[in-house]
Amino acid sequence: MIDPRIWLFWAFTMLVAASEVRNPLYILWLLLVAWIVEIRWALHRGQKIPWSFRWGVLLIPLAGLFNGMSVRIGETVLLRLPSWLPLMGGPITLEALVYGVLNGMALTIILSAFLTFNRATPARDMVRIVPKAFYEAGVILSIALTFFPLMLRTVQDIREAQMVRGHRIRGLRDWLAIWLPLLMNGLERAVRLAEAMVARGYGAPFPSGSPMGVQFSLAGGLTALLGGWLVRLFVPQHRDAGLGVLLLGVGLILGTVWWVGHAHPRTGYRNRSWTLWDGLIGLGCGVAAWILIDPFSWVDPQALYYSPYPRLLLPDFHPWVGLGLLGLLIPAFAKRSSEID
Question: Which residue, among 26, 32, 9, has the nearest Cα to 295 in the 3D structure?
Answer without folding.
Answer: 26
